[in-house]
Amino acid sequence: MKKFPEDFLWGAALSGPQTEGYALKEGKSASTWDYWFKENPEKFNEGQGPEVTSNLYERYSEDCKLMKAIGLNSIRTSIQWTRLLPDGKIVNADAVAFYRDYFEKMKENGVKPIINLFHFDMPMWLMEKGGWETRESVDAFSFYARTAFECFGDLVEDWTTFNEPMVHIECGYLQGFHYPAIVDLKKAVQVGYHTLMAHVKAVQEFRKILPKGSIGIILNVSPSYSRSESVADLKAKAAADLLNIKSFLDPVALGKMNQELIALLKEHDLLPDALPEDQKAIAENTVDFIGLNYYQPSRVQAPEMAAYPAKALEDFYQPYDWAEKKINPYRGWEIYPEAIYDVAMMMKNDYNNLPWYVSENGMGIADEERFIDDSGMIQDDYRIDFMKDHLSYLHQGIEEGSNCFGYHAWTFIDCWSWLNGYRNRYGFYRVDLENDYKRSVKKSGLWYKKLSEQNGYEA
Ligand code: BGP
């Protein structure tokens, strides 16, 4: 039996915009997602938008019981900024009532809420003023954070500021996938810097308002593996890790910007505008813990042709198609559980063994209904195998001293996923969109219950 440390968190991650639905109802204002869907519904898989998603707003009482039923002892979800503060200033009483009841119901069912503040859902009123490109966004976010701590701090002890800041930067400002779909490396760096400062200011507020609570951030880690040991490939790998991992992890965990990253940005004339007092604020507001989302590694090689100074990430490193890679055929992502061990060792060796947890890990499946058996249950053995493989490398990392306190799967119930709509299903519960959003447990949900009860699994 592979046993995990006492009080290990066995849970799942969610986000407000991907589950709640009830968009633009009960006072909620538009986020970039509500706006973009209205303007360009054709960009979204099968025209599935953010209005209903998993209909959790109406079903959260039932859902909290379902969390308990599969042994979840914790859930991370997010508050929607546009629900709590529709105009950025005045608190929406309906939102407070909804979230308070939701978090209370979780607790009644033995589920610890870990509450995140931002999961790609920029308010439209702020985006119209420039969003993360402007320094104003830092103050707006810190006001929102303070408001959330004041409204829910008596119910929630554990908080996170952002989910995967690199994703809103890359998808929104480098790849054109998310609104505002700009492709501009210099702007992307500035957006990243303001996001970092918004996080830092939120931590500063947190220490004043909830000194006994703990606060962290959720970062996506795709550790990079280089094509070869050549100087050029290793340089590409180093750049990928600096830009994608150390850019946030160093300041939030160690209280200082990574100097190699600063040198790289300077060399390419990409340094962001900063205020003189920022360094001090970064140093004084490190986190209590880190959440790391891991899905797949990043395979990199030196660019064949690179603009100088760099104009795009591809001028620093390029993807490399490793011939031996194992692919999830239903999502196209590489499956490489070994990386979780490398992540665990990175936290131990490079980040002072700061407490951390796996805040998302899971397997997305397109057309998952093909795996429904005669009893009506999805037989998702592929998901169980995926998680077991990752847990075994995580276990090894913990045995070797990495300070990991939990594992959260993505996700509890099938969720709406941005432009992908409901294409890729990840839940322990299936959500039947054709049948009044009915939830039904998948085989993996029953397996997870046992895992949580035993605090481990038969190896
Ligand atoms: C993570 C996000 C989640 C979720 C997940 C699955 O990066 O934090 O919000 O979307 O990825 O992604 P997808 O549905 O695109 O497979």
Summarize the structure.
The chain has an eight-stranded parallel β-barrel, surrounded by seven helices. Strands 7-9-10 form a three-stranded mixed β-sheet, with helices on one face. The chain contains 15 helices and 17 strands. 40% of the residues lie in helices and 15% in strands.
In words, what does this structure look like?
One of its GO terms (biological process) is carbohydrate catabolic process. Belongs to the glycosyl hydrolase 1 family. It is built from 15 helices and 17 strands. 40% of the residues lie in helices and 15% in strands. The strands form 5 sheets. The protein has an 8-stranded parallel beta barrel, surrounded by 7 helices. Strand 15 and strand 16 form a beta hairpin. Bound molecules: 6-O-phosphono-beta-D-galactopyranose (BGP).
Helix and strand topology:
Elements: E1 2-3, E2 9-13, H1 16-19, H2 32-39, H3 56-69, E3 74-78, H4 81-84, H5 93-108, E4 112-118, H6 124-127, H7 136-152, E5 158-163, H8 165-173, H9 185-209, E6 214-220, E7 224-226, H10 231-254, H11 259-267, H12 278-284, E8 289-293, E9 298-301, E10 318-319, H13 338-350, E11 356-360, E12 365-366, H14 381-399, E13 404-409, E14 424-425, E15 429-432, E16 438-441, H15 443-454, E17 456-457
Parallel strand pairs: 2-3, 2-13, 3-4, 4-5, 5-6, 6-8, 7-9, 8-11, 11-13
Antiparallel strand pairs: 1-17, 9-10, 12-14, 15-16
Bound molecules: 6-O-phosphono-beta-D-galactopyranose.
6-O-phosphono-beta-D-galactopyranose (BGP) binds next to loops.
